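Incident log, support desk, overnight shift.

02:14 A customer reports that sequence design results differ from what the structure should imply. Their input is reproduced verbatim below. On-call engineer (initials T.W.) acknowledged and began investigating.
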């Protein structure tokens, strides 16, 4: 027969374990989501943006990545490993093609295969205008890997996931 103290002890243990799980996982999820928000903010471009602001955003973007990043995007025939030092130049080159860029990440599914890795499946919406005036509106499904170092999350892999069309 289970006595009252045992039931209370089990309930208290369950409550403490649940609280620890919620605080840890939610805070780690929030940290990962914040990295995506920072990435979007540093890749976005406003038509009135100065070259100095553009360079500062490119430099800030560099700080979101691991020392080596794997990028695989079949739609752009791109598959390579990029050194973090190359990030500012790549960001500036990519942004130079646009007069305006808006980037949004949504439908984010975050899994933690280990304490130091986050696997994120996310939909990325890119809308803007090319320098020549043509509108751009693209949606890509991405699989991203982030590594945790010194309590911060850093992007280490971006891979476009091929989605079947109807």
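02:41 Re-run completed on a clean worker. Output:
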């Amino acid at each position: 027969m289970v006595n009252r103290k045992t039931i209370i002890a089990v309930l208290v243990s369950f409550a403490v374990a649940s609280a620890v799980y919620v605080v840890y996982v939610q805070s780690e999820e929030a940290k990962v989501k914040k990295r995506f928000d920072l990435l979007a903010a540093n890749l976005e471009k406003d038509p009135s943006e100065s070259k100095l602001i553009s360079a500062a955003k490119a430099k800030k973007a560099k700080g979101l990545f691991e020392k080596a990043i794997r990028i695989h995007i079949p739609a752009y025939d791109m598959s390579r490993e990029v050194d973090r030092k190359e990030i500012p130049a790549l960001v500036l080159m990519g942004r130079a093609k646009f007069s305006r860029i808006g980037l949004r990440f949504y439908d984010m599914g975050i899994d933690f295969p280990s304490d130091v890795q986050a696997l994120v499946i996310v939909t990325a919406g890119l809308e803007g205008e090319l320098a020549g005036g043509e509108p751009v509106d693209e949606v890509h499904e991405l699989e991203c890997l982030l590594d945790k170092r010194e309590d911060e999350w850093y992007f280490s892999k971006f891979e476009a996931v091929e989605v079947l069309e109807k």
